[in-house]
Amino acid sequence: MKESPLPTPRRWIRSAATSVVAGLLVTAVGCGGPESCLVSGKVLVDDRPAEGVYVVFHTAGDSTGLPDSGSARSGDDGSFTVVVSTPGESTVTAFWPTVTVKDQDTIEGVDRFGGAYRDPRRPVATVTIHEGENAVPPIKLTSPPRGKSRTSSRR
User: Which domain of life is it from (predicted)?
Assistant: First the structure.
């Protein structure tokens, strides 16, 4: 039996349903893939590049406070690169764990900032993320005075 050149109602419905599902998947993914919302920047503590600082991106307006967009750890020159899952407004938090190496194991400890920069309701920065590559301004943090925690004041 020869197939008709015009789509049958069943074939049309199947084709339309496939297109709708594909469209929903692209929308749900946000930026559309692992390369689409690439964010790079630098972390400075007391105006110097800082290694090992975690920067966490949160979708602005998200009441859960969960790091739903992405996070990265700064390298020895303070730079970081992260894939952010949701384009748009993001708030940024940070923490800088102490690091101990024992028997070839690296152990991350308490936050050197005393938690002062971890609260997404009081972000260290707010940035707008677009699809494609994004370079954000340096994230400038201040270390606490020796022997004092920064939990009571931020800047």
Answer: Bacteria
46 in Cβ contact with 143 (< 8 Å): yes
Contact 55, 67 (CB under 8 A): no
φ, ψ for residue 33, nearest 5 deg: 165, 175
DSSP 8-class letter at 122: S
Q: What CATH number has the domain spanning 37-141? A: 2.60.40.10
Q: Among 113, 119, 121, 69, which Cα is nearest to 90's?
A: 69
Which residue from 23, 36, 20 is spatially nearest to 86, judged by alpha carbons?
36
Antiparallel, parallel or unpaired: β 139-141 and 37-45: parallel
Give the position of tokens 């307006």: 61
